[in-house]
């Protein structure tokens, strides 16, 4: 009997001791969580301070420092590329062998040259538009708006020529460098015929924009797999959105919009990405970061982005441009300009003159010279292109200089941690 009592007493003492241990460890766990939260907040604050410091490294504030940092970062990137190529020697040799074979085939005379010329022309044409698409969505911090500068005007020129010539069978060459009406003109023209004429370049441009959306995806995916938080403003903004997910009262309209995109991509998956990519969406980088953070497979993300941007979105944009620049709409817009009080007639005249000159250029014979008369509209457009390209180049220099400054800050932070 006494043994039973002793066992009951000992078991109750064991339970009490376990409860005491549990109570004593709970504050420790809470303390560890609080410490982690404090460290995380301190790291974010440090990243914010570093970004503010790097933001001053621009050509118009610190030109010599910016240029020096730019060249240093360029040398580091070049060294990294050389090391990567050296580590993939076999692939490089195979690639060089293929290029050498193609060059020899290109320079060897024979009946195959007409096919070589056709493939070369098509390849360069596609590569040109893919490159412009990539520039539009990457830009190392700022995108070059190549749709407004190149693809949009190209579709508009084809549209105006198609309605003037009533045909899209433009003489090649000189098309696409120059548009000349064919000798046999048609009697009608439809939007679908024009869309089929510019389908290839529009698709390639859209594919380029899809490729340009990959860096945010890879950055977020690498951060999730490595467990290291990158010093990236968009990624930290994404994490803040996740933290405020359960606090709807502390959200402005922009945060709610970003949350809606994040939920759409996370819950709907492939079709959610297609929906986000199919509309003009300046927040699509957030969709890429969301997909990378939640480890959505690469081909799911890229396939949906390609369908959304290169097929659905491009068809919407093509229809808009072709409809806007169809002959009767252009004439209606020019006539409306003339009704603007006081300045209307003065603005209408150069637009009408420019449109008539463009129509006349479509009907000249191949090989004949056309008098090049200056127009203030073309002058303004050329200067806008120069300004935007210059801004794009300057932004790349600033971005690369700030990347080198980020390396210096990280090195200093690591040295400080080792010294402690």
Task: Please give a handful of descriptors for the protein shown.
420 residues, mainly alpha, 76% helix, globular
Return the structural class. mainly alpha
Helix content: over 70%
How many helices does DSSP assign? 16
For the report, how would you describe the main beta sheet? none
Calculate Rg over CA atoms.
30 Å
* Mean pLDDT, all residues: 76
Elements, N to C (H/E): HHHHHHHHHHHHHHHH
Strand content: under 5%
Unreliable stretches: 4-9, 25-33
> Distance between the terminal alpha carbons, to the nearest Å?
62 Å
Number of beta strands:
0
Shape category: globular
Describe this structure in words.
With 420 residues, this protein is mainly α. Helix content is 76%, strand content 0%. It contains 16 helices and no strands. The protein has helices at residues 2-54, 63-87, 89-107, 113-137, 146-165, 191-197, 199-212, 214-226, 233-243, 253-268, 270-277, 284-293, 298-324, 327-337, 344-361, 376-419. Helix 10 crosses helix 12 (284-293) and helix 14 (327-337) runs antiparallel to helix 15 (344-361). The termini are far apart. 22% of the residues are buried.
Short description:
With 420 residues, this protein is mainly α.
Tell me the layout of helices and strands.
Elements: H1 2-54, H2 63-87, H3 89-107, H4 113-137, H5 146-165, H6 191-197, H7 199-212, H8 214-226, H9 233-243, H10 253-268, H11 270-277, H12 284-293, H13 298-324, H14 327-337, H15 344-361, H16 376-419
Helix pairs in contact: 2-16, 4-5, 4-7, 5-13, 7-13, 8-12, 10-11, 10-12, 11-13, 14-15
């Amino acid at each position: 009997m006494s043994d039973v009592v002793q066992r009951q007493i000992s078991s109750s003492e064991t339970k009490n001791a376990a409860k005491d241990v549990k109570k004593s460890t709970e504050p420790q766990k809470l303390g560890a969580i609080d410490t982690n939260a404090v460290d995380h907040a301190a790291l974010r604050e440090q990243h914010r301070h570093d970004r503010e410091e790097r933001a001053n490294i621009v050509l118009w504030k610190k030109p010599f420092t910016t240029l020096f940092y730019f060249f240093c970062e360029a040398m580091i990137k070049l060294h990294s590329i050389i090391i990567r190529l050296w580590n993939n020697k076999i692939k490089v040799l195979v690639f060089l062998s293929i290029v050498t074979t193609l060059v020899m085939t290109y320079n060897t005379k024979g009946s195959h040259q007409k096919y070589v010329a056709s493939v070369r022309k098509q390849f360069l044409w596609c590569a040109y538009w893919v490159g412009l698409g990539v520039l539009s969505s990457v830009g190392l911090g700022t995108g070059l708006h190549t749709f407004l500068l190149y693809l949009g005007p190209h579709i508009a020129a084809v549209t105006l020529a198609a309605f003037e010539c009533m045909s899209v069978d433009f003489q090649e060459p000189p098309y696409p460098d120059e548009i000349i009406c064919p000798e046999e003109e048609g009697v009608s023209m439809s939007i679908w015929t024009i869309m089929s004429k510019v389908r290839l370049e529009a698709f390639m441009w859209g594919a380029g924009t899809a490729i340009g959306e990959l860096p945010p995806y890879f950055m977020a995916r690498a951060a999730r797999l490595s467990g290291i938080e990158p010093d990236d403003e968009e990624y930290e903004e994404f994490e803040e959105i996740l933290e405020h997910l359960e606090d709807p009262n502390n959200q402005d309209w922009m945060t709610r919009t970003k949350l809606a995109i994040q939920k759409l991509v996370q819950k709907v998956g492939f079709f959610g990405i297609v929906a986000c990519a199919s509309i003009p969406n300046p927040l699509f980088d957030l969709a890429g970061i969301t997909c990378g953070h939640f480890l959505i497979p690469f081909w799911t993300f890229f396939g949906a982005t390609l369908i959304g941007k290169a097929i659905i979105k491009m068809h919407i944009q093509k229809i808009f441009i072709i409809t806007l620049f169809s002959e009767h709409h252009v004439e209606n817009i020019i006539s409306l300009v003339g009704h603007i009080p006081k300045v209307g007639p003065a603005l209408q005249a150069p637009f009408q003159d420019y449109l008539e000159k463009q129509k006349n250029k479509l009907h000249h014979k191949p090989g004949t010279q056309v008098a090049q008369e200056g127009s203030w509209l073309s002058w303004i457009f050329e200067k806008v292109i120069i300004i935007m390209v210059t801004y794009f180049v300057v932004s790349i220099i600033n971005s690369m200089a700030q990347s080198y400054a980020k390396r210096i800050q990280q090195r200093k932070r690591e040295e400080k941690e080792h010294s402690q």
